[in-house]
């Protein structure tokens, strides 16, 4: 599953990191050039000011994933 977000600030990157750490499945963030674990705060901070895709395995509940991504925005 893939959803698009804009990472606009350091605070938002920290929030994404916290939510990904609490998720019971792996959450990844990707751009055109990089894909990283959303639990990597340093990696997320490098993406501030960019559009990114939040990615999870296909077997994750789509409703739960949608709620997670909406909290990241």
Q: What fraction of the residues are assigned to beta strands by DSSP? A: 15-25%
As a percent range, the share of helical residues equals: 25-40%
SSE series? EHEEHEH
Q: What is the structural class? A: alpha+beta
User: What is the strand arrangement across the widest sheet?
Assistant: 1-4-2-3
Number of strands: 4
Total helical elements: 3
Largest sheet: 4 strands, antiparallel
Description of the molecule:
A four-stranded antiparallel β-sheet has the order 1-4-2-3, covered by helices on one side. The protein is globular. It has helices at residues 10-22, 41-45, 62-72; strands at 2-7, 28-30, 35-37, 50-55. With 73 residues, it is α+β, with helices and mostly antiparallel strands. It has three helices and four strands, in the order E-H-E-E-H-E-H.
What's the arrangement of secondary structure elements?
Blueprint: E1 2-7, H1 10-22, E2 28-30, E3 35-37, H2 41-45, E4 50-55, H3 62-72
Antiparallel strand pairs: 1-4, 2-3, 2-4
Descriptors:
73 residues; 3 helices; globular
Structure described in brief:
The protein is α+β, with helices and mostly antiparallel strands and 73 residues long.
């Amino acid at each position: 599953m893939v959803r698009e977000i804009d990472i606009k600030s350091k605070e938002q990157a920290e929030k994404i990191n916290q939510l990904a750490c609490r998720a019971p499945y792996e959450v990844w963030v990707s751009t055109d050039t990089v894909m990283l674990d959303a639990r990597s705060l340093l990696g997320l901070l490098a993406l501030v000011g960019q559009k990114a895709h939040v990615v999870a395995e296909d077997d994750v509940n789509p409703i739960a994933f949608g709620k997670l991504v909406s909290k990241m925005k």
